[in-house]
Amino acid sequence: MLWVARLSGLCSLAMVMVVLSPSIQSFPPAEAIRSSHYLRIPAAAGGYNHHLAAASGDAESLVFRRAPRFHNAAECEPPSANGTSVCDPSLVHIAITLDEEYLRGSIAVVHSVLTHARCPENVFFHLLLSEPGLESVVRSAFPGLRFKAYYFDPDRVRALISTSVRQALEQPLNYARNYLGDILERCVNRVIYLDSDLVVVDDIGKLWRTRLGSRAVGAPEYCHANFTKYFTDRFWSDHRLAATFAGRRPCYFNTGVMVLDLVRWRRAGYTRRIERWMEVQKSGAAPSGAGRIYELGSLPPFLLVFAGHVAPIEHRWNQHGLGGDNVRGSCRDLHPGHVSLLHWSGSGKPWVRLDSNRPCPLDHLWAPYDLYGPADA
């Protein structure tokens, strides 16, 4: 029966490749990988080097490949002569976090965006990091990349974080997205936030041009999901708390892919609104957990503030849950419809499963954007 399971997995992967084929044929990532050069992790990022060496036993074999340069299509608006200016109105702004554990994933995110962008020279990355030096890996892997690194102080949010169903969800850097309106330059009026466990397989300019109307947040919504499960019985039994959603039609949305209108965000003080809900959670989180109003880390405060007030974006821009949610070893299929972004939200990450030779079928779609590999490859 094992051969039947394997055949089923291969058929699933083949069907996904057919769905994705227009994007992949237009910008073949395999060609980009083959033309890459190899580079060793700079000494400044030695922490990550040591972390990976613990798994392989050979730090000298650990390298990232250097991606080729990506150039604009003829119809793209030329970027300003001042290549370092973050205020250039022609730029597409993307914010991602950068840490040791997810560095490999973050590099793949950048690579996938550049591979499929019609105007890659007009993409500007805002890297949020809590450890100095990791930005040098990005600089080495992507010569000529437009980006700026911002230090996010973990102490800014640490006291507000309560325990979650997964320890990974408790990391302070997960909450950096709450502070983009404060961290980024005031001239940055809009930004796309992307998690570090996804790849983009379409032109990011399409997502950038999404109309948000009067909303500060745009994201794919999933109104069929059981919204009540994102909060505890204590929350729903307290009429004052539950009344938060009165007059709204709240739907679940995944905060790993969002388009943010930072002008509206700053004007409405949304960062402070999110913090206030974290304070409510923290003040009621007794040792027994009886006073908690949610269990899922950084997501519920976003839902409390924005659910029911989100500009809907096509589901193709967040095919999430490919990491199996919080169930280890589970493989997920894609949602029906077109695919522009694959998201391995959940506990299973594609690089971990690929390295352990126990991948899910869809993990092979992440592999072409992976720039991590042995020195003798």
Automatic annotation (TrEMBL):
The organism of origin for this protein: Ensete ventricosum
Membrane topology term: Single-pass type II membrane protein
Keyword terms: Glycoprotein, Glycosyltransferase, Membrane, Signal, Signal-anchor, Transferase, Transmembrane, Transmembrane helix
Keyword Lipoprotein tagged: no
Subcellular localization(s) per the UniProt record: Endomembrane system
UniProt keyword Glycoprotein present: yes
InterPro entries reported for this sequence: Glyco_trans_8, Glycosyltrans_8_dom-fam, Nucleotide-diphossugar_trans
One Gene Ontology molecular-function label: glycosyltransferase activity
EC numbers for this chain: 2.4.1.-
Protein name according to UniProt: Hexosyltransferase
Gene3D superfamilies linked to this entry: Spore Coat Polysaccharide Biosynthesis Protein SpsA, Chain A
Family to which the UniProt record says this protein belongs: Belongs to the glycosyltransferase 8 family.
Source species taxonomy: Eukaryota, Viridiplantae, Streptophyta, Embryophyta, Tracheophyta
Main location group: membrane
GO cellular component: Golgi apparatus
Enzyme class: transferase
Pathway where this protein functions: Glycan metabolism; pectin biosynthesis
Signal sequence interval, chain numbering: 1-26
Pfam families linked: Glyco_transf_8
